[in-house]
Structures are given as structure tokens and as C-alpha cells.
Design brief:
Blueprint (H helix, E strand, L loop, with lengths): L1 H6 L8 H31 L2 E4 L2 E4 L8 H4 L4 H21 L7 H5 L6 H35 L9 H10 L1
Antiparallel strand pairs: 1-2
Helix pairs in contact: 2-6, 4-6
């Protein structure tokens, strides 16, 4: 993995900051989403039950809140990720002209587009991986929503409610 990143980065560039940012973003995003989902889902699930003779009983014809009401897609967090990754691309282009001026080394290579490949490839891969990570996070939360909700309380059109969170 590190060899792949080194081969696709400007010569001599330390990529530790980029890797640290990406891993930190994913961990923080997942933690925040999980915490907010547990909070909202618990609140929505509590409306399904009522206390009868000291026991919790499922309400008749009770429906849990829509999945979109228990989890929210944060466009600002994704936009921030895109801006930071764009900043990484800009930094990679600027890095060629720092210190040992590796731009001259890159210009001597037979593949003329190698400068652009090394500046764009890793941030672009990070964007794709982050997008897949976000989608997998929502699928995990959706699976939890479906598994832990009594079947009779699930609303109609479950998959529509899943995709609706991205269009709200």
C-alpha cells in the first residue's frame, strides 16, 4: 500500500499527513454517524411501545419513524472532504517546485502526463474510497434499522426511504 502511494506521489513527498487526514476523517465520520443514529433511532423506537401493567407492550398499528428521520446525510462534511482533497491536489502541484525542484525530474520522464497522474491519482482514489465508505456506513445503519425494528412497525417503501436521505 505504501509503495503504491509512493509511486503515485511527487518524488520525495511525505504522504503521512494525507493518510492521517483520510483515516481520521473516516473514523470521525463513522463515529458521529453512529452516535447520532443511535440517539435518533432510540427516540423513534421508544414511541413504538407503551407501558401496560408495568410492562412495555408494542402499540397497536405503531410505525417507526422513516429511516431518513433517524439518519441524515451531511453534505457539508462531504463538501469539506472534497475541498481538502482539492487542496491536496494543489499542494501536490506546488510540491514539484519546492526544495529539490522535482519538476525538472518529472519533465525528463517519457510519460508527459506523469506530473498530473502523481498530483491527482491519490486524492481521487481517496474521494472514491470515502464515497464508498459513506455508502457502506449508511448501509450498515440501514441494516441495523431493519434488524432491530419489529417487522410490523417498519414503514412501507423501505428502500425508497434509504435513497431519500441523499436527495433530501
Amino acid at each position: 500500500m505504501n509503495d503504491f502511494i509512493e509511486r503515485n506521489s511527487p518524488p520525495g513527498m511525505n504522504t503521512k499527513t494525507e493518510k492521517t487526514f483520510f483515516v481520521s476523517y473516516c473514523i470521525l465520520y463513522f463515529t458521529f454517524k453512529l452516535f447520532s443514529f443511535i440517539t435518533e433511532y432510540s427516540r423513534a423506537r421508544s414511541f413504538l411501545y407503551e407501558r401496560v401493567n408495568g410492562k412495555w407492550v408494542l402499540r397497536e398499528n405503531a410505525l417507526i419513524a422513516d429511516f431518513g428521520d433517524t439518519v441524515f446525510f451531511n453534505y457539508r462534511a462531504f463538501a469539506l472532504l472534497c475541498l481538502v482533497l482539492l487542496g491536496f491536489v494543489l499542494y501536490r502541484y506546488l510540491y514539484y517546485r519546492q526544495g529539490s525542484m522535482s519538476i525538472y525530474l518529472m519533465k525528463r520522464l517519457p510519460q508527459k502526463n506523469e506530473i498530473h497522474v502523481r498530483a491527482i491519482k491519490i486524492p481521487l482514489i481517496m474521494l472514491v474510497l470515502a464515497t464508498l465508505f459513506i455508502l457502506l456506513t449508511f448501509l450498515l445503519l440501514f441494516a441495523s434499522y431493519v434488524i432491530f425494528t419489529p417487522k410490523v412497525c417498519l414503514p412501507d417503501g423501505l428502500w425508497q426511504s434509504f435513497w431519500r436521505i441523499f436527495y433530501a
